[in-house]
Amino acid sequence: MKSFERKKGWTIKKQLIVVYVSRGDNAEALTRSVLHTESLLKKYGVKYRIEVITDMPISTNGIVYSNKVRFTVVPAMYVTPNRAKYKARALEYLLRTKLSRFDKNNNWILHLDEDSTMHDSVVAGIREFIARRKNSTTVGQGEIKYNAYNYGANPLITSIDAVRTGDDLGRFRLQFKLFKKPLFGMHGSFVLVPLKVERDIGFDLGGKGSITEDAYFALLASTKYKFGWVDG
Length: 232
Description:
Blueprint lengths: L1 H5 L8 E8 L4 H17 L4 E7 L14 E5 L12 H11 L10 E7 L6 H12 L7 E4 L12 H25 L11 E4 H7 L4 H4 L3 H10 L4 E4 L2
Parallel strand pairs: 1-2, 1-4, 2-3, 5-7
Antiparallel strand pairs: 4-6, 5-6
């Protein structure tokens, strides 16, 4: 992280588009995540956009966001050609409309859940991953620390969630670093994807593919692209 700070942050021309997908019924967590993420991206001079896509309108609690943050509600009558559902439907709408104008060669998508916040070290890890020429069409994923908000407030839940982080650093890291494939699947959050790869695969996965859209997307992508581990 210190070497990253000495380099004065982002320095690369690629833009990071952070995507938050939510039903919209947990506005408090979503607001907390977006504000934290934007403050961190600004801190390190990241070239960024934040896209928030929900199924229902949400209250911004009077907060005035910068012009780098955009809120989108999926139209109630929107139907994809393959009738994608749930999160996949929202992601496909975003991809076909709001992200269609972005240069596919100079933009990367970072998928986060509504309660996901970024750490300083992961900004450095993402920059390093994107800057490697060999990763120009590589799908990345890294470590997730669960229950970070109010960590330790419930000892039982905290200890159970700690096992999931161990799983990330064990078999998930192994498959991405050694085999370059999602042999055990992929999380739906902390997914780093080149925009050109996401456009190629898409999220119009049909009804069954929408149940676990992250795993389905990973299986389709793995037939054409490599996967890698993002540090941080």
